[in-house]
Design goal:
single chain; 579 residues; alpha+beta; OB fold (Dihydrolipoamide Acetyltransferase, E2P); BirA Bifunctional Protein, domain 2; Gyrase A, domain 2; 3 domains; 8-stranded mixed sheet; 5-stranded mixed beta barrel; 22 strands; 29% helix; 24% strand
C-alpha cells in the first residue's frame, strides 16, 4: 500500500504507531538541526519531521524537496512539542524513517494555498493545480453532498432516475442550440439539449409517473457569473399532479438539502408571491427578500408639479434606504454616476434626506415643498435618518433600474448576508411576452407550459394577459429553479404553437413526435428543474458558479486549460461533409 492513513486522519490516539503517508509537499521549514515538511492530501495536512543529528542523509534528502513534490513517508507518530490548534492533526507529527520521492514537480505558477496569488485566468489555465487548494475542494465537496442528498430524497419519494439522450433535434425556440454535425447523415445536424423537456414529458406519457435526472444541459448564450455554456440541472417531472403537488414536493427537497448539507432549518411553508406583485414591489421576478426597500409608486405625489422629468414619466418609483441619511454629497454623486452607467441606463437620481429633526432636504427642493416630501416619506415608509431614492421613466425600465439600485444599496449596507437564506415561490407568470422587434409572441417559460385554467377562455381573445400555470423558486435574489404544469392536450398544444408564430407544418416538423404522443393518452403532468450549479453556489454563499464546477469555461466560453473550442483539420471536415 502507498499509505496506511491519510493526511487528515492521525491524532494523539495514534502516538507510538508506525504509519505510512503519501501526498504533496505543501511547504518546508529548515530550522538547522531539524527540518519540517507539511504533507497534504485532500483529507488534510500532517507535519513530517527529519532530525539532522540522527539521520543526516534523510534530512538532506528532505531539504531538496520542492513544493508539490509527490512523496511517500514512513515513520513513527509522536506528540508535537509545539502544537498547531488550527488543524485537526496539529497535536502530532511523524518522525520519518523512510522517504520516497514518487514524482518530482516543477515550481507551480501560483501558490497552492487557501489565499493564492493566482489570477482567475491563470488558475483556469492550470485548473488541475487550482483544485488542489482547500477552498476549491470544499466547494466541490459541497456539490457532491447536494447531489448525493438529492438522490436520497428523490428515491425516498418514489422517483426513478432515467437518462435521456444528448444528441437530439434542433429547435429554434429559446436560447441558441449547440449543434453537432452527423457523419453518417451528411448535411444534417444533431443539437445538444437545452433541457430534457420533451423527453421527460414523453416519460410521463410512457407511464413512468415520477422521473428525475441530474443532467447536463447546453445553451449557446452570452456568459456571466451564474451562466456556463454547459450546466447541470436537477430535472424532475410528475404525472397526475396539480401545481400545489409540485410546490410541496420540491419545497420538501430544498428543505431536505439545506437541513442535511448546511444545517439550516426552514420553519413553515415558503412564502409565495405572484409575478405581478414581485414586479410591482421589487422590479424583479426573483426578488431578494432578506431586506425591505420595497418600491412605492410616486406618480400621484410627484407629477404636475413642474418637474418635467417626473411629469413626462410613465412611472415614478421610490425606495426608502434605512439609516442612509448621513450619506455625503460625494457618496450621493457616486451613486448618481453608478445608475447612469450603461449597464443600468438611468438618466439621473433624485434623493431626499429624512433628517433626524423631522425636516427634509432633497435634490429637487426647487419643485417640491417639505409637505410634498413628507408625503413621499409616508408612501415609501421612510423614517427619520433614512434616505429616499427616486427613479423615473418607462415602467419596465424604471423597475429594472430601481431593482439594480436596491440590490446595490443592500450590498453596501451589509443587508445581504450570504449565510442567511430567504426562499420565495413566484407564481402566475405571464404565459406569453410580446417581441416588438419580430412582432410576435414568445413563450415566457417554454411552449409546453399550460395556461391557468381560469384564463383559458382568453387564449383566443386576449392571449397577452393569459397567466401561465408556472412557478419559480428564488433564494436570496437568485432563481434556483422553475417549472410549470404542462399542456397534455394536442389541440391546446397546436394552438400554443400557432400563437408563437408556427405554421401547422412547422409545428409538426419540429414537435410532431410530442403532439402525436398526446393522441395516445397523455396524463396531466408537470415538473420543475433546479440549476444544480446555482443551488450549490447559493448554499456556499457565492455569486459565481464557476468554482463549483470542476472544469468550467471562462466568460468567452473557452476552456483555457485544454484550449477549446479549437479548429479541426481538413480530413475531419471532409469526413463530416463540411467546408
Amino acid at each position: 500500500m502507498y499509505r496506511t492513513h491519510n493526511c487528515g486522519e492521525l491524532r494523539t490516539a495514534h502516538i507510538g504507531q508506525e504509519v505510512t503517508l503519501a501526498g504533496w509537499v505543501q511547504r518546508s521549514k529548515d530550522l538547522g538541526g531539524i527540518t519540517f515538511l507539511d504533507l497534504r492530501d485532500r483529507y488534510g495536512i500532517t507535519q513530517l519531521a527529519f532530525n539532522m543529528d540522527e539521520q543526516p542523509e534523510l534530512c538532506q534528502q528532505a531539504r531538496k524537496l520542492g513544493r508539490e513534490f509527490v512523496i511517500q513517508a514512513t515513520g513513527k507518530v509522536i506528540e508535537r512539542s509545539s502544537k498547531n490548534t488550527k488543524i485537526p492533526t496539529g497535536e502530532i507529527e511523524i518522525i520519518v524513517t523512510t522517504l520516497t520521492v514518487l514524482n518530482a514537480a516543477k515550481l507551480p505558477p501560483f501558490t497552492i494555498e487557501d489565499d493564492t496569488d493566482g489570477g482567475d485566468e491563470l488558475r483556469m489555465q492550470y485548473r488541475y493545480l487550482d483544485m488542489r487548494r482547500n477552498p476549491v475542494q470544499q466547494k466541490l465537496r459541497l456539490r457532491n453532498q447536494v447531489a448525493l442528498e438529492t438522490r436520497k430524497y428523490m428515491d425516498s419519494q418514489g422517483f426513478w432516475d432515467v437518462e435521456t439522450p444528448y444528441l437530439i433535434k434542433s429547435t429554434p425556440e429559446g436560447a441558441r442550440d449547440f449543434v453537432v454535425p452527423s457523419r453518417m447523415n451528411q448535411g444534417e445536424f444533431y443539437a445538444l439539449p437545452q433541457s430534457p423537456q420533451t423527453f421527460k414529458q414523453l416519460l410521463m406519457v410512457s407511464g413512468f409517473d415520477r422521473y428525475y435526472q441530474i443532467v447536463k444541459c447546453f445553451r449557446d448564450e452570452d456568459l456571466r457569473a451564474d451562466r456556463q455554456p454547459e450546466f447541470t440541472q436537477i430535472d424532475c417531472e410528475m404525472a397526475f399532479v396539480e401545481q400545489e403537488d409540485i410546490l410541496n414536493m420540491f419545497e420538501g427537497l430544498i428543505k431536505h438539502l439545506f437541513s442535511t448539507v448546511r444545517g439550516v432549518i426552514f420553519e413553515g411553508d415558503f412564502p409565495r408571491m405572484t409575478y405581478a406583485e414581485a414586479m410591482e414591489k421589487y422590479g424583479s421576478d426573483k426578488p431578494d427578500i432578506r431586506f425591505g426597500m420595497e418600491f412605492a409608486s410616486l406618480n400621484a405625489l410627484t407629477q404636475n408639479k413642474g418637474f418635467q422629468v417626473f411629469d413626462d414619466a410613465e412611472a415614478v418609483i421610490g425606495i426608502a434606504v434605512p439609516g442612509a441619511a448621513e450619506y455625503t454629497r460625494k457618496q450621493l454623486d457616486e451613486l448618481t454616476e453608478w445608475v447612469k452607467r450603461p449597464q443600468i441606463g438611468a438618466k439621473g437620481l433624485v434623493y431626499v434626506k429624512c433628517n433626524a429633526d423631522g425636516t427634509f432636504k432633497s435634490s429637487v427642493d426647487k419643485f417640491y415643498s417639505e409637505a410634498d416630501l413628507k408625503t413621499w416619506a409616508e408612501a415609501t415608509g421612510a423614517q427619520a435618518g433614512d434616505l429616499i431614492f427616486v427613479l423615473s421613466g418607462g415602467l419596465d425600465k424604471a423597475r429594472k433600474q430601481m431593482n439594480e439600485l436596491r440590490l446595490h444599496m443592500g450590498t453596501q449596507l451589509g443587508l445581504r448576508n450570504p449565510d442567511v437564506f430567504k426562499p420565495l415561490w413566484v407564481l402566475d407568470f405571464p404565459l406569453l411576452e410580446w417581441d416588438e422587434e419580430h412582432n410576435r409572441f414568445h413563450a415566457m417559460h417554454h411552449p409546453f407550459t399550460s395556461p391557468k385554467p381560469e384564463d383559458m377562455h382568453l387564449i383566443d381573445s386576449n392571449p397577452g394577459i393569459v397567466r401561465a400555470n408556472a412557478y419559480d423558486l428564488a433564494v436570496n435574489g437568485v432563481e434556483l429553479g422553475g417549472g410549470s404544469i404542462r399542456i397534455h392536450d394536442r389541440d391546446l398544444q397546436a394552438r400554443m404553437f400557432e400563437l408563437l408564430g408556427f405554421t401547422p407544418e412547422q409545428a409538426q416538423a419540429q414537435f410532431g413526435f410530442l403532439m402525436n404522443a398526446f393522441e395516445f393518452g397523455a396524463p396531466p403532468h408537470g415538473g420543475l428543474a433546479f440549476g444544480l450549479d446555482r443551488l450549490v453556489a447559493t448554499m456556499g454563499g457565492s455569486d459565481s458558479i464557476r468554482d463549483y464546477i470542476a472544469f468550467p469555461k471562462n466568460n468567452s466560453g473557452r476552456d483555457t486549460m485544454i484550449d477549446a473550442p479549437s479548429a479541426i483539420d481538413d480530413a475531419q471536415l471532409k469526413e463530416l461533409g463540411l467546408k
